[in-house]
Amino acid sequence: MSELALTLIRLGFLTLLWAFVLVTVLVLRRDLRMPADAHPVARSGRPARAPRQAKRTKAPKTAKGKGTKLVVIEGPLVGTVIPLADVQITIGRAPDSTLVIDDDYASSRHARIYPAEGTWIVEDLGSTNGTWIDRTRITTPTVLPVGAPLRVGRTTLQVQK
Amino acid sequence: MTTPALDSTIRRQPTRRNVELLLLVFAWGIGLLGTLQVGWAIGREPDTGLWVTSGVVGLLALVTHLIVRFRAPYADPIMLPVATLLTILGLVMIYRIDVAAARRAELNGNPLPTPDVYSQLTWFTVAVILFCAVLILLRDHRVLQRYTYTLGLLGLVLLVLPLAPVIGTTVNGATLWIRIGGLSFQPAEMAKILLTIFFAGYLVEKRDSLALVRTKVLGLGLPRLKDLGPLVVAWLVSLGVLIFERDLGTSLLFFGLFVAMLYIATQRRSWLVIGGVLFLGGAVLAYYLFGHVRLRVMVWLDPWTYATDEGYQIVQSLFGLANGGILGAGIGQGFPNLVPFANTDFIVAALGEELGVTGLIALLLLYAILIERGLRTAISVRDPFGQLIAAGLSITLALQVFVIVGGVTRLIPLTGLTTPFLSYGGSSLIANWIIVALLLRISDRARRPAATTIAPDEALTQVVRRV
Fold first, then answer.
1. What's the structural domain count of chain B?
2. Which of A37, A53, A55, A112 to mutate to test the interface with B (most CBs of B within 10 A)?
3. B463 within some domain
4. Residue B188 and which of A61, A117, B423, B443 are 20 to 30 A apart at CA?
5. Chain B residues with beta carbon closer than 8 angstroms to that of A66
6. pLDDT tens for each residue of A32-79
7. How far apart are CA B307 and CA B9, in angstroms?
8. Whether the predicted model's global pTM rises above the 0.90 cut
9. Residue at B240 is within a domain
């Protein structure tokens, strides 16, 4: 094979290598533009990281717009939004909870919220410090009205339409 | 019944498996062109062996893709193609060095050496099998947390296994291999993964006391002596590896990994300072106590004095890199086989000679992308254990690339570590593919829409660790 052809192939190989890198970077960029975690779930947060979490979860909030959502209105994870779909939501310190709260006053499996006939029911899962709607500690599965403050440990949540 | 909310959650998180397949085909094509280029450069027609080899590699890549498609559908789409391309580039280079060795033997009238590329291909097959096994058997990475201490112990045993009397083998001064039957294996590569999992499990449990309890000394919050224990143990083990197995690279890797994971888990800079001080102490101690460490440093500072003996390898590699220049000599047109161990420790020098600095930068970018995806996974996964494993495994890769590429290019003293995915050698290839499998498993968990993960009964019947 001629010298010229070899040189062209050599440069072609380098071009291809770089093309691969650039395509990967493009894919990566498109990936970054999508909300990184479309699952709008708070990460087990240390207080230091809380501001960033609030920012990260903003995207789903604006995207959802109209749907019913559960919003953290007080506590370290304030600003976190969880859209309510037709699946249950678990709250607690266990890492696989939907809302993981790193809080000494919360239990591993603290409470769950599940849908029933168009309303949302909250049930305490035998937590130590209790689950409170307004000022009352709940003992049986209770309907969670829109706008009522739900307290779990030091975190307060609210259902918003 | 599907609510609009649920629908949009799923729509916004495509699995991106087709992009992955496309990139895999691209990577395979690059490999094929590289292989053909070797033949063209030396004026030999491609034989059937070459086509069969390329076909097998393509088939293996397809298998990994299918497994990911069915077993980890939401996993990161970039990590697999990048790892595949790196492995393929390694195979091309090993094939190329085989060809050069064969030609040289022909010229000198020596018997032809056995080509390494076929055994590397065999190891790649084994690596893909284990990759699939990890993705099939490990449905959820959190299961590993239950075996934290078992895996840690196993890792330590593997680390010291080369010192065992019958099976341990010393090659080129380093006692790093075990030999059972005709097969030799480098257990430190597996130990690397097991110890990362152990560190992750251990730090998840202990990180609060490691992060919060401190005494202020000179404006720097220092942990209690009691909490320093594990760091000191890691330091001693690293030193032990250095002293008894005479392996600088591995000991550096383990200590760096542990310090980095401590820092990530606790977010306290003081660990980096303490780790740095311990590292410097260990390095100075090693320099004065051990001849082989001192020699490495001397060769690093002034390789030309040792150009014909201890520094021969590094000097040849520097000549190679210089010969490559900016655009490289072209695959098949350089002289990478002049460097001893061109297909293991010095494969980066071989690639640098034939692809030039342009190719080498592309190569380093591929590593950077892979590591970035790993760290990204660590950020987006929800459980702290998964975060630490993903971060730890990415850091292992980063450290290893830094140590070996830095060594070959004479940025830091040379230490014998394999180049991930590229180097000839089964243990390293297998271990790195298991790392990719673990990272994909964790990223699948991280990117999966929440709606599908919380099946009510699964949430209720799981084993609860923290009470």
1. 1
2. A37
3. no
4. B443
5. 4
6. 765 444 444 444 434 333 344 444 443 343 333 346 788 888 877 777
7. 62
8. no
9. yes
